[in-house]
Amino acid sequence: MTKLTLLMGILTGLLAAFSTSGSDTALQTSKHIRSILQDKTGNFWFGTDGDGACRYDGNSLTCFTEKEGLCSNFVRTSLEDKAGNIWFGTRDGVCRYDGKSFANLTDKEGQAYSGKVRQSEPENLWFGTRMKKA
Fold first, then answer.
1. Is 67 exposed, middle or buried (0-12, 13-18, 19+ CB in 10 A)?
2. Which phi and psi angles does 41 have, rounded to 5°?
3. How far is 22 from 88, CA to CA, in rounded Å?
4. Using one digit for the tens of pLDDT, what is the confidence trace for 1-23?
5. Which helix (H) or strand (E) holds 54?
6. Residue 109 — left, alpha, or beta (φ > 0 → left; ψ -120 to 50 → alpha)?
7. Among 3.20.20.70, 3.40.50.2300, 2.60.40.10, 2.120.10.30, what is the CATH number of 32-127?
8. What angle do CA 70, 59, 67 make, to 5 degrees?
């Protein structure tokens, strides 16, 4: 029998996982889930509004915050590139997770990017930005 899992991110931040294997789960990620991404290995990533990014592997939930190197706990969007890196567009910048550690990106003036992250063909990444007041 094929395992089927249905995940729901609810505005209250409750993550509900319903499985045909009979192992239904309810986990609390955050009060607000802003984005959901499924990566190539089947993990689900949840961007939250104030509680960082959480990865659900089907069994357990691991959350990453500024303590672990995430550039902001306010994650707006996420994307997996062709190399398997996870990119997070946050309120305070863009960061990349390579499976081991985070790298925070800034422009040549040292200002952080923020907002949306998208990929186009062949391998270009696009970052939505906003102006910061001086």
1. exposed
2. -90, 0
3. 33
4. 444 444 555 444 545 544 445 55
5. strand 53-56
6. alpha
7. 2.120.10.30
8. 20
